[in-house]
Prior knowledge:
alpha+beta, single chain, 37% helix, 5-stranded mixed beta sheet
Amino acid sequence: MPRARQVKTKETFDFKTLKPIDGGLFGLEASGGPGGTLFSYFDLGPELTFPNPIMEKPIAEVLGIPQKDVYSIVSGQKEYEGQKGSNAIKAALDRIDVDKDIERIRSDLPNLSKTKKDKAYKRLRNLEGVKAHGVHPRDWMINKIPVLPPKDRPIISLEEGDAPAVAGVNILYQDLIESVNQFYPFLETAKEIYGEDLGEFGDLVWDMKGVLYQLVQSLYGTIDPVTQKAQQKNAKGILKQVFGKDRKRGFLRDRVISRPLDQSGLGVIIPDSDIGIDKIGLPEEMSWRIYEPLVVRSMVSKGYNPATAVREIKDRSGSASKHLDLAMGERPVIVNRAPTLHKFGLMAFWPHRVGGSSIRVSPSIVSSYGADFNGDSLLNNIHLRLPVKSEQELVDKPFLFEYNIDSQDNSILTQGGEDMPLQGRIRYKYGVVNLRDFPRGKLLKDCGDVLIYEVPKDVEVLTSKDGKSQWL
């Protein structure tokens, strides 16, 4: 990286002139200024070389030490082969002959115990990895810290009087740069007083090196922030921003996958046998809400003033309605059946407007979606079997709907929802009723949220308990 792109100070802007400070985190020469896209670097200096926090585990596996001992060696709490500090780790990595070590490990593997064999496999895997990529384990040590482009760590000015919004990684960069710039004057003073052995300042210097390594770790995102300011601001290191603390958190999921969308809707589905397999019925209000920006654009392209177009949509005028239908005919919707456990949980359909508040789907897509029509209510799982003498009797029952029944065993293939439409005729002897039309006798007991009714004569109820179904 060109020397001109070196960051030397933690400063960002001169807030009187709002100009970036040269040599700072937003310097024009180093990073391209605010919104810049150039990577830069910060030099840790001649006395500070640390293990790359991302490669801490491979370093431990290659050297045959516990991973927690890496920090202990860097901070001078432990020795490695008679030496303390990062130089001990660097010297050990320098001595590795990748080709010879790979050959030796392979020849020793058959004679090793199970525990030693596991450690040897880990070392072999890492050495084969560096060989395949044309690098050496010594490259796992760092002396320069990469600085992200300003575009990826902005400082945003808010309303007058409010403090600017600062990306958390800037705080972590500032903590590290400030601490390194304070370390060297202290080290020079200690050497002037006590010489190279540092005397009584020796332990304090080791502690400072340990803290500096922790600042590097927190910047990379392998540990949580260590300074009070970074903790208060909830600053996150680079890796923690990208991947998060667990698999359900992270930049992609928080900003893209889990982000609420402007053009989206949520609703309960019900079956409609008149809908094609590639189509879906959207409730009227949901259709207007989802497609409103597209309708406005369509109307403006036809000569409408934007304000007029918005007013027409609000009034649900005939012209706006025509443009809505055009927009829905040009752009399908993606329907997600959460949780999305397989590829069929996310499919596209051509929408059209329907009445009611439920989303209507073809019964043919129910199985692939793993969908149901219980409306998140346990009562909707109740099915009825009615003894009848003729189809006309079924037609005369106001609470029955057209329903698909397996011709062999009369098992129900689809279930109904609250907005399931009445049909002109009933094809089969069995049906499902809406809860609002559920036939019931006298009220037996009022339990507050639950009302218990007597089952009318000649009505059989299918119950399910412990995986067993029974008609009562």
